[in-house]
Amino acid sequence: MNEPAVKATSLVLGYDDQVAVTESSFRVPAQKVTAIIGPNGSGKSTVLRAIAGLIEPMSGRMTVVAPPARVAFVLQSTSVSESLPVSVREVVAMARYPALGFYGRFGRHDHEAIDNAMERAGITELASKQLHTLSGGQRQRVLVAQGLAQDHDLLLLDEPFTGIDIPTARAIDDMIHQERDRNSTIVISTHDLSEARHADHVLLLAGRLIAEGPPADVITSANLLTAYGAGILHPEQGDAFIDDPAHAPVVDRHIH
Fold it and tell me: Which of the listed residues 4, 18, 68, 84 has the most CB atoms within 10 Å of its CB?
């Protein structure tokens, strides 16, 4: 078996003295797409932040094979203040800053990486637009492009499919699987079970690890009942529907 890209052993995560994820052990396979699912407050974003090195474990151990400079972390799109004068291209270009050093200047490789990322995200024509003028879906494309523009081995995306239109969801889904085919490891947090079913590996959280493995082994009525509770889980004809209006799944998303 290949060495995992991320390995957690007896891991406990939290903020200050507040525990968010109790003792859990899991792995993220290299060069695969791993989806982290679970209800609100289950620890999905906390695990992503730990993988990115933004928080330290309270106890236990997390090993990340990729060096910090080769980890790209894409946050969920949020509202942007109109007082922030930043263009789309400038936002994408920020991905290149860590590798340049304090006095570094963009070279041809940097400009090519920025252009390529914007083209793949379908935002080339938005290059000069101010970020705050864009729709939520357009902003999400910009943030994903920023992640693509960074030289990375590990790409982390926090809720990339929340609150976006179907064309944007399909575009981001395509980019995720293209990155896997380029031998990157991708980890996404998502409320969308249909998206998780198309991942290679799934982590189901509810303040702790409930299950991990291939989607068919993890996304079962029994596991979802444990994680979400009977109040919002509706098993029907052998399948399950999560009654979560804030994170409703998008129908007819997958075309691959």
Answer: 4
Band (pLDDT 50/70/90 cuts) for residue 229 is confident
Cβ burial of 44 (10 Å; 0-12, 13-18, 19+) is buried
> Taking the mean position of all CA atoms in its chain, how far away is CA 124?
23
Residue 108: enclosing H or E segment and its boundaries? helix 108-121
Report the share of the chain in percent with pLDDT over 90. Answer: 70
- d(CA 174, CA 148) in angstroms, rounded, equals 13
Three-state SS at 59: strand
Instruction: State the DSSP H helix or E strand holding residue 217, giving kind and residue range, or none if neither.
Output: helix 215-218
Backbone angles phi, psi at 70, to 5 degrees: -105, 20
Return the percentage of the chain with pLDDT > 70, whole number.
86
Tracing tokens 């920023």 back to the chain, one arrives at 146
pLDDT at 204 over 60: yes
**Cβ–Cβ under 8 Å, residues 172 and 76:** no
Sign, CA dihedral 33-198-189-25, equals negative
Which residue in this structure is represented by tokens 């474990």? 57
pLDDT score recorded for residue 81: 62
Closest CA to 62 of 8, 124, 12, 138: 8
Superfamily of domain 1-66+154-160+182-256 in the CATH hierarchy: P-loop containing nucleotide triphosphate hydrolases (3.40.50.300)
Structure tokens at 45: 């974003």
Query: What is the residue extent of each domain of the chain?
Result: 1-66+154-160+182-256, 77-152
pLDDT digits (tens, 9 = 90+) for 81-95: 666 789 999 999 999
Q: How far is CA 130 from CA 100, 134, 139, 156, in A?
A: 24, 7, 10, 25
